[in-house]
Design brief:
Blueprint: E1 6-11, H1 19-32, E2 37-42, H2 44-47, H3 57-71, E3 79-82, H4 88-97, H5 102-106, H6 109-115, H7 124-138, E4 144-146, H8 152-168, H9 170-175, E5 187-189, H10 224-233, H11 252-265, H12 269-276, H13 281-307, H14 310-339
Parallel strand pairs: 1-2, 2-3, 4-5
The structure holds adenosine-5'-triphosphate and magnesium ion.
């Protein structure tokens, strides 16, 4: 069966948005608006899988919304909302808790990383997170999901859940006239030169909101001075840049900076090395500072302006939630019929 193409993705309101979130996700969200209907979600239910201060969470939700809009997402043509306003996400996640298997979730590396050594003390929500993510996507029967490389395993799990639901309830799905499959197999869109932006301090670690060193990441709200300092201090090796990509294979820090440059400039790494191959890092870093300030400065400025107007942000989220819910509620009615629940 052919499903109508629909893009869904989300970002957690868990702290400072950084260059990895922008290049791996938000920049792609913006591009996909030209070719697809898109639904972009501030996933606040995911955020509380780790402790969030209730006095801080609203600000974080509004800041991610502001980042979406500042980066160029149009909340009128597409849908922008926060997850907790559409209860169907949590409702479908419960059904998926009963479809997914413990063995599948036990293999998820993000849980292992985030729970760390104290697994007994991790929230149940952190463990079940991928089931909620599957529900986020499938409650819209979305077909395409732009994410960073770190979410690949969760997307595979979403596909497994869709398939098991389609199989387990196959007779019911057919008897109700939905054809052979109710849920599509959502396609991950993990593309471009910066699907995994690494820490500026350690080329083997993902750039992340939770890294204690602010020098490890470029925040979307960093000003020009902060960006310049962080890029200049970024770890590198003593050699000049190689002439082609094979020369980056054993140089994670160089590879990361070239990938960042390429993604910011919407060029390929090969093209960037064509220009900078043989150059010293000091020259390349100066060009990277200029490019970063040029691309990120306006977004950060617009974010700061938008968060001054929480009433506007909240109206965007309310409008988006209502339009998202209209789709999600229909899916949930079908799911209830397929599963065999009695409903009004
Ligand atoms: P947290 O540490 O709270 O999980 P996060 O930085 O991983 O924060 P998320 O909200 O979990 O941010 O992810 C939002 C999107 O950003 C996802 O699509 C994720 O794959 C992408 N992303 C996160 N970090 C990076 C990175 N370093 N490089 C590329 N994409 C990234
Ligand atoms: Mg994450």
């Amino acid at each position: 069966m052919a499903f109508k193409h629909l893009v869904f993705s989300g970002v957690q309101p868990t702290g400072n948005l950084h260059l990895g979130n922008y290049l791996g996700a938000i920049k792609r969200f913006v591009e996909l608006q030209q070719s697809h209907d898109c639904i972009y979600c501030v996933v606040d239910l995911h955020a509380i899988t780790t402790w969030q201060d209730p006095a801080e969470l609203p600000r974080a939700i509004r800041e991610v919304t502001a980042a979406f809009i500042a980066a160029g997402i149009d909340p009128k043509t597409h849908i922008v909302f926060n997850q907790s306003q559409v209860a169907e996400h949590a409702e479908l996640a419960w059904v998926f808790n009963c479809v997914a298997r413990m063995g599948w979730l036990n293999r998820m590396t993000q849980f292992k990383e985030k729970a760390g050594k104290d697994r007994e003390n991790a929230s149940v929500g952190l463990f079940a997170y991928p089931n909620l993510m599957a529900a986020d996507i499938l409650v819209y029967r979305a077909t395409h999901v732009p994410v960073g490389d770190d979410q690949k395993q969760h997307l595979e799990l979403s596909r497994d859940i869709a398939q098991k639901f389609n199989n387990d309830f196959g007779d019911s799905i057919r008897n109700r006239g939905f054809g052979d499959v109710f849920f599509p197999q959502p396609e991950p869109l993990i593309q471009g030169p910066a699907t995994r932006v690494m820490s500026l301090r350690d080329g083997t670690k993902k750039m992340s909101k939770s890294d204690p060193s602010d020098y490890s990441r470029i925040n979307l709200t960093d000003d020009a001075d902060a960006i310049a300092q962080k890029v200049r201090k970024a770890k590198t090796d003593p050699n000049p840049l190689p002439p082609d990509e094979t020369g980056l294979e054993t140089r994670p820090e160089a590879d990361n900076l070239v990938g960042i440059f390429a993604a910011l400039a919407s060029r390929t790494k090969a093209d960037v090395l064509g220009e900078f191959g043989g150059a010293q890092f000091s020259n390349f870093k100066s060009a990277l500072v200029d490019l970063s300030v040029d691309k990120l400065g306006p977004i950060g400025g617009e974010m700061k302006r938008l968060v001054q107007d929480p009433a506007y942000i909240d109206s965007v989220l309310a409008d988006g939630s209502a339009r998202a819910q209209a789709i999600a509620a229909e899916t949930m009615r079908y799911v209830k019929d397929i599963v065999g629940f009695v409903r009004r």
